[in-house]
UniProtKB/TrEMBL annotation:
<keyword id="KW-0808">Transferase</keyword>
<dbReference type="InterPro" id="IPR006218">
    <property type="entry name" value="DAHP1/KDSA"/>
</dbReference>
<feature type="domain" description="DAHP synthetase I/KDSA">
    <location>
        <begin position="15"/>
        <end position="266"/>
    </location>
</feature>
<dbReference type="Pfam" id="PF00793">
    <property type="entry name" value="DAHP_synth_1"/>
</dbReference>
<keyword id="KW-0963">Cytoplasm</keyword>
<comment type="similarity">
    <text>Belongs to the KdsA family.</text>
</comment>
<comment type="pathway">
    <text>Bacterial outer membrane biogenesis; lipopolysaccharide biosynthesis.</text>
</comment>
<dbReference type="GO" id="GO:0009103">
    <property type="term" value="P:lipopolysaccharide biosynthetic process"/>
</dbReference>
<dbReference type="GO" id="GO:0005737">
    <property type="term" value="C:cytoplasm"/>
</dbReference>
<dbReference type="InterPro" id="IPR006269">
    <property type="entry name" value="KDO8P_synthase"/>
</dbReference>
<dbReference type="InterPro" id="IPR013785">
    <property type="entry name" value="Aldolase_TIM"/>
</dbReference>
<comment type="pathway">
    <text>Carbohydrate biosynthesis; 3-deoxy-D-manno-octulosonate biosynthesis; 3-deoxy-D-manno-octulosonate from D-ribulose 5-phosphate: step 2/3.</text>
</comment>
<dbReference type="GO" id="GO:0008676">
    <property type="term" value="F:3-deoxy-8-phosphooctulonate synthase activity"/>
</dbReference>
<protein>
    <recommendedName>
        <fullName>3-deoxy-8-phosphooctulonate synthase</fullName>
        <ecNumber>2.5.1.55</ecNumber>
    </recommendedName>
</protein>
Amino acid sequence: MQLQHIPNLKHLDANNFFLLAGPCAIEGEDMALRIAEQVVKITDKLAIPYVFKGSFKKANRSRIDSFTGIGDEKALQILRKVGETFSIPTVTDIHENEDAAMAAEYVDILQIPAFLVRQTDLVVAAAETGKTVNLKKGQFMSPESMKHAVQKVKDSGNDKAMITDRGTMFGYQDMIVDFRGIPTMKEFGTTVLDVTHSLQQPNQSSGVTGGRPDMIETIARAGIVTGVDGLFMETHFDPANAKSDGANMLHLDQLEKLLSNLVAIRKVVNELGS
């Protein structure tokens, strides 16, 4: 696991998993700073390398009236402020080629959404910024096929790629995590498990995605045991009123206990591997 290329990433000598966490979407400055402050306190206490996550816009929505953002420039400026205020790295997802260079001016990691990870031009545009690229595994893709997405980043002159598993479609309205994919994808690079999106229940008749937040700890524990390098999860102090993905989000008040348990499990895994 090579993470030294991510600016301001702390606690790299702790031999812990790293964490990408924050709200699904940037809803405003106060909420972003509030969430980041709380997560920074917890991760510093537990010596977990931490990256703040927030989408500057949401392009993949079920309905035309779904929340998409507060404005690209405004949201990106908030992401920059979060990073500067707490001296932590930040990550956001991009959806169009021109988003890459724009977002790269504000964040440290560019994320390719799972729906778009086969879009060669988008992956190349992200890679050419020189930023770390987090490639979400498509819900329709095998773990083995992700090596081609990683190779696109490398062929663009960038060797800073991560792969994030966010579940695989199981029928029309459910997701599963095939943990056999973690060791497979570790052969290609740093691996992350997206815990909360793996528990989505998409394609609901209401047009609002459902989820199973009660299973967050179960999936996260399994990921740590399987040897994943990092975890991705969305958290909010008021998931019920979050403007995006509230149904599968972790309540911020539950984060410290969850991470404490996961750190304990990681310690055992490290001891068994030594």
